[in-house]
Design a protein that fits this description.
two-stranded antiparallel sheet; about 190 residues; 12 strands; tt1808, chain A
Length: about 190
């Protein structure tokens, strides 16, 4: 899938080097590794991006007070295999006994920025779907809404959310209020 992007380049250039997690863990800066190819992450996200990450993390986390099996993490390595390591903006993980995410998260939230939209909406979408992430949320800070997908033998779009509330069908019940998440940014934009 991701490797297909490089096939044409490979015909014209020197052979591409594929990297592994062993290489990745020594790199400086912010990177992801997709099918053996390094992908530089954008520089530090803008304020609205960071704010939404915090809001999604806290909105999901407030549901987990009585759930000892699950926790919310922000920008943690999700080691899919030796050649693919992603860093979701927010993830809810359950029964993870490693230092990094090694099992498909229950929920992944990616905050979309213009520089990462193609990767988040297409490449990561397919990877998270294949790996069995139960819910994938794409949040759009410039438009103040989120798309929510549920994995039922592939991601199916539940809908677009701006001010609505949704309860996700998980072992630990999670309700997300999108009005709470977007309210402050909406007020800021209106002023």
């Amino acid at each position: 899938m991701f490797f297909d992007i490089y096939q044409e380049r490979q015909k014209m250039a020197a052979p591409l080097i594929k990297y592994t997690y062993e290489n990745y863990k020594y790199w400086e800066g912010k990177w992801e590794l997709i099918e053996g190819f390094p992908v530089a992450m954008a520089p530090s996200p803008v304020i609205n991006h960071q704010y939404l990450s915090v809001m999604f993390a806290s909105e999901i986390n407030k549901n987990l007070t009585d759930c000892d099996e699950c926790l919310v993490v922000v920008e943690e390595d999700y080691i899919i295999n030796e050649e693919s390591v992603l860093k979701p903006d927010v993830a809810m993980i359950c029964n993870e006994n490693n230092q990094f995410i090694t099992k498909a998260p229950e929920i992944v939230v990616e905050i979309i920025s213009p520089s990462t939209a193609k990767i988040d909406e297409d490449i990561k979408f397919k990877i998270y779907e294949k790996e069995g992430v139960k819910y994938y949320i794409l949040a759009y800070p410039n438009h103040l809404f989120a798309k929510v997908y549920k994995n039922e033998n592939g991601f199916k779009k539940i809908g677009d959310f701006e001010v609505e509330e949704i309860t996700l069908d998980l072992k630990c019940k999670v309700t997300i209020n999108f009005d709470t998440i977007f309210k402050k940014l909406r007020r800021k934009n209106d002023s």
